[in-house]
């Protein structure tokens, strides 16, 4: 059941992405030739005005086919290629915006029944903690930034303190004002009567009303974005390899594991919704990377083309952009095939 739910959820995320393109195209007056939910043979089709609406057999996405999307159509003023640059940017960005929005909505649903949350506010120190002082940390301090990173949750504190040499630039909110602790040494220590190592302070718990649930969901979505960018930095820095990446097969397998390991069906659905929210935000970020064939790559080349044309006063043949996107698509498909092979290998050997 969880595997089917994961496949359906993944398909919905892609369909919502295409729906974002569709709504933006319609709002900008672009001719949409077909909007399809699902892929493969059509189960249902209906022509309404200039657009063919279709429901297809495979619930693995969808597409929004716009006139002039892949080639210039000079005699059609409503073609995508005939629109000013700002309209094309809006249409291209709309898909990722919808992915981020559905991720945020899922988080609001997940946290709607939450009663309280752990805040990054210090409520007490361990006996003998060396970091409590007038010049250091105090009870009531709320961690705001650590080494330039915004702190939203108590878990962010240990996450960013674990990086570096143990000396940090910390900003806390104290009595409503921001206090900066520069080059502040904060390391894990052993305390009497405590097993393991700790920083020496505990955080508080705060009850949540509805506006705070919305704020908490927003912070969580932003934190997801930071996680994606952090993973990309680790990939480029060599901290993780391409073999560590997961594609749709691996994601479906992980969602199934999340469902199976949950205490009950209701817990499983909430945990899966939380995981799908992360995937939705992940898709929003990844799709806006300036890589050919992705929406971010199309926006990047659109801006570059606009700049070159305004400097040289010469129109660039749109076929060149098409060649670049085709090459990017080939490389992406090759990467997807490699990642899928690794996902299947991990599942088989698990």
Topology:
Elements lengths: L1 H26 L4 E17 L2 E16 L18 H27 L4 E10 L16 E5 L2 E2 L3 H8 L5 E8 L2 E9 L3 E2 L6 E2 L2 E7 L2 H28 L10 H14 L3 H23 L7 H18 L5 H32 L1
Antiparallel strand pairs: 1-2, 3-10, 4-5, 4-6, 6-7, 8-9
Main beta sheet: strand number and arrangement? 4 strands, antiparallel
Structural class: alpha+beta
Radius of gyration based on Cα positions: 25 Å
The count of domains is 2
Helical residues, percent: 40-55%
Task: Calculate the mean pLDDT score and round it.
Answer: 87
Widest sheet: strand order? 5-4-6-7
Sheet-strand content, in percent, reads: 15-25%
Give helix and strand order, one letter per element, not per position.
HEEHEEEHEEEEEHHHHH
Report low-confidence residues grouped into runs of 5 or more.
none
Strand tally:
10
Query: How many H/I helices?
Result: 8
The span between the termini is 20 Å
What does the overall shape look like?
A: globular
What do these coordinates show?
This protein has 350 residues and is α+β, with helices and mostly antiparallel strands. The protein has two domains: 2-111 and 273-349, no CATH class; 116-207, Pdz3 Domain (Roll), CATH 2.30.42. Helix content is 50%, strand content 22%. It has eight helices and ten strands. The protein has helices at residues 2-27, 85-111, 154-161, 210-237, 248-261, 265-287, 295-312, 318-349; strands at residues 32-48, 51-66, 116-125, 142-146, 149-150, 167-174, 177-185, 189-190, 197-198, 201-207. The strands form four sheets. The chain has a four-stranded antiparallel β-sheet with strand order 5-4-6-7, covered by helices on one side. The chain has a two-stranded antiparallel ribbon with strand order 1-2. It has a two-stranded antiparallel ribbon with strand order 3-10. α2 (85-111) crosses α4 (210-237). The longest helix has 32 residues, at 318-349. The protein is globular. 24% of the residues are buried. The model has no long low-confidence stretch (mean pLDDT 87).
